[in-house]
Design goal:
about 80 residues
């Protein structure tokens, strides 16, 4: 079993744990994972020529919100004009 699979399995167990401290730590870990996945896929979409509007539609958010969240980060990384 890889480290990623081990971490995912551990996280899955924590999400259903009856101890609120454990469950809430799992929520924090899931939020971080979701943010990283969003960054990864937004970057992938932009690198493939997707517009901010296309990305926003896929994420079910406004174009403005996705642009505000990701454009500055991408500019700082030299990925946007």
């Amino acid at each position: 079993m890889s480290t990623e699979e081990s971490s995912a399995t551990k996280l899955a167990g924590q999400v259903t744990n009856k101890d609120p401290a454990v469950g809430l730590r799992a929520v924090v870990a899931l939020r971080r994972l979701l943010e990283e996945l969003e960054r990864l896929h937004v970057d992938n979409a932009r690198d493939q020529g997707w517009t901010w509007q296309n990305i926003a539609a896929a994420l079910h958010v406004s174009r403005q919100s996705v642009h505000e969240k990701h454009a500055t980060r991408r500019k700082a990384a030299g990925k946007e004009d």
